[in-house]
Amino acid sequence: MTxxxxxxxxxxxxxxxxxxxxxxxxxxxxxxxxxxxxxxDVVAEQDGGLYLGRLQTPLxxxxxxxxxxxxxxxxxxxxxxxxxxxxxxxxxxxVASAAQYEPQSxxxxxxxxxSEAFYFSDPEGxxxxxxxxxxxxxxxxxxxxxxxxxxxxxxxxYLQDHLTQESVDGQRGTGAGVGHVHLQVGDxxxxxxxxxxxxxxxxxxxxxxxxxxxxxxxxxxxxxxxVWNSRGAGPxxxxxxxxxxxxxxxxxxxxxxxxxxxxxxxxxxxxxxAELGFEDPWRNRIRVxxx
Length: 291
Fold this sequence. Notes:
Layout lengths: L15 E9 L2 H11 L3 E6 L2 E6 L2 E8 L12 E9 L2 H14 L4 E6 L3 E7 L5 E7 L7 E2 L2 E2 L8 H8 L2 H5 L6 E9 L3 H11 L3 E6 L3 E5 L7 E4 L14 E9 L2 H14 L3 E3 L3 E5 L5 E6 L1
Parallel strand pairs: 1-4, 5-8, 11-14, 15-18
Antiparallel strand pairs: 1-15, 2-3, 3-4, 5-11, 6-7, 7-8, 9-10, 12-13, 13-14, 16-17, 17-18
């Protein structure tokens, strides 16, 4: 168990991550990127922007925000949105299209033991992770902590091993989801106090006091926070980049229980019954809603 004192204080084990909203300066450029580089389709045009995703499941909400500035590298906000693919061939197809669209947007790759991951940056500097999970039964746990690493994962060899003509041709017909969201924050202890102690995630891993990984239901992580670029950062300004992280839960009771925990902790929130909106200590906006 974590700081949360009982199962009543934990987020539900079958929680999932929902759409990530990005505030966008150049809608045409960003829409083109998410469609052509990442193989997403426009799922809906509403809320003053576009929802893009796969198989009618929205993954990213691009919201026009002309006039806002790009955040500074050291500010709190989004580190990356991580899109999870069903299999290695589907992952390889999107890694290939992203690299082909803009080779300079590729920022790295790693075998994390629990997953295989490739990293990119969109045209406005928002980080993107494209990944595939190894089967859960192969994950190693050291007590409450999942064993993760960052081992070499050569992209060319990966594409040679897993990219098929079938996966390229059928790219848009394969599912994907938001597997996790990784944030930049000012300090790890405050992140732990908020995301574990108040929200009710469980800590699954740390990294030398510089990063924290948290989840519900023993997933490797639904969210992460790090200080690699942003140690000491205070509350965010209103900038381009992260607008909102959506967390989806099974029932209104789950939303209500979280609303109670936030109230006890003195965290301001807006509760409509079916959903709950609030901000973390760095003004990263979170919305929890019934799936």
